[in-house]
Amino acid sequence: MAMTLAEAIIAKHTKDPVEAGSICRVSVDFAFTNDITGPPAIKEFRKMGAKKVFDPARCAILPDHFSPAKDIASAEQIKECREFAYEQDMLFWEVGRVGVEHAFLPENGLVLPGEIVLGADSHTCTHGAMGALATGVGSTDLAAAWALGETWLRVPETMKVSYEGTPSEWICGKDMILALIGKIGVEGARYMALEFHGEALGKLGLDDRFTLSNMAIEAGGKTGLINPDEKLLQYARERAARHFEPIFADKDAVYAASLTIDVTDMEPQVAMPHLPENVKPVSEAAGTPVDQVFIGSCTNGRISDLRSAARILKGKKVHKKTRLMVIPASYEIYRQAMKEGLFDIFLDAGAAISTPSCGPCLGGHLGILAAGERCISTSNRNFVGRMGSPKSEVILAGPMVAAASAVAGHICHPKEIMA
Amino acid sequence: METTLKGNAWVYGDNVDTDVIIPARYLVTSDERSLAAHCMEDIDETYAKGVSKGDVITAGNNFGCGSSREHAPIAIKGSGASCVIAKSFARIFYRNAINIGLPILECTDTDRIAKGDLIEIDLTKGTITNRTKGETYHAKPFPEFLQSLIGLGGLVPYVRTRLSEQGR
Q1: Which domains does chain B have, with CATH numbers?
Q2: Model confidence, pTM
Q3: B155 contacts A364? CB cut-off 8 A
Q4: Chain B nearest-CA residue for A124
Q5: Among A61, A63, A328, B45, which one is least packed by beta carbons within 10 Å?
Q6: Per-residue pLDDT tens for A168-215?
Q7: B168 touches A: beta carbon within 8 Å
């Protein structure tokens, strides 16, 4: 039977019959938590009576959420993760080396094509861009994977999304995924896998592909898969921490749903409060004042995101009543941005640059909003209270719109700043 | 786990996300009682103080969307609520609730339930009786594998059994 990418990857990891809707016991290639989901996972791991993780080179904790420790309680959580990691001899990186998990792991060749990857973080779907069936789970499921090296998965139905056409210079991966979520809604792909295809996808750089896959969860998806191409395989081979075998969808696979998005005349997209499906073209939101701009996160904190923001900000100033937070998602990105002179552009514009962290995305630290404040953010969620006060607002956008809005002090199409 | 549950309904709409069930600013602990004190506070300031043991949360579609934080079902369980009934659940929340032993039911009739209605649930039969309105609704049965997982007492006992089979 011809298989979708999700089915083909599951079939390589199970002895159970694979068809959409069936439940399979699968082996897990890599399993990780962060500093928030880590402590409950450790507690459940102990309750399970487990002594050792199944393979310390395939189990990791990444302290990226409330790190560098934002307060005493966060420091205690990170300490608990650190002590467990050393006890188990598993992967753990300190501040100064760790990055935002979904940027850091692919950079370090720890998530690879053809693999099944579990993360106790909903944005684990990001790694679908590596051609891995990567999905978010809770702490108990993750603890079970650490103990057994396996998990159960319901074989998802797959929605095929084809991006066709040629986009303008103002369009990035963020606009493409927001357009999809606006179309199908926050539960449009609930329990399903998304599989991205099309001419416009093939031309996208890897950073933009990570952005696409990252927000599959915002449509309810289990993962956002992309068939590996030569560009991706070369990236993976250069970095791979272990042997891997890429897996591909069959050409004649049957999809539960298919849709096409033409990017040719697409305008940059924004998602208004308080759901990622409240998507509009930027022109319809233009002029809305913003107090803060955040460029970073596992969605848009990669080097090409920083380059596109810098292109807009070069020689310009952040509006006097607006603050701009720039947070590179990893130290590799941080160093690269510094080498390329992007930090000078940001600093000259009057932006704050912080150390890699999830930071304000989930209302942790490094840019929390007061009541009545509004932030335009390159992150992935705009739920009530997501970035601070329950009376604050978050609007989601790509890095070019975010940078342009920082200069204007209100939501703004980047072409107006560049005119 | 008790199989008969009884309490009053707290009614919410579609897309109740895990950020409002338990905001990230409280995720500096995974202690059930500390989390329960802030459960639902960003959409309903009356919930954490007003909820009584056994009460039932009802909602529309996609309950528990967003973050994978297991703190969300832990906060609900810690608050004293005995069950969440929704038209549909986001997949990570669905797994998490089963794993930590918070009963959840998928039922398309939640619009029939009003705030404060007295609800009685038979988990083994999957029936939801609205004593206030004198109506009975039926929950969608769990897949066979999940029924056996729930029967074992959740994922923790399941893993414990698997580990002892493997002699680890």
Answers
A1: 4-165 (3.20.19.10)
A2: 0.97
A3: no
A4: B68
A5: B45
A6: 999 999 999 999 999 999 999 999 999 999 999 999 999 999 999 999
A7: yes
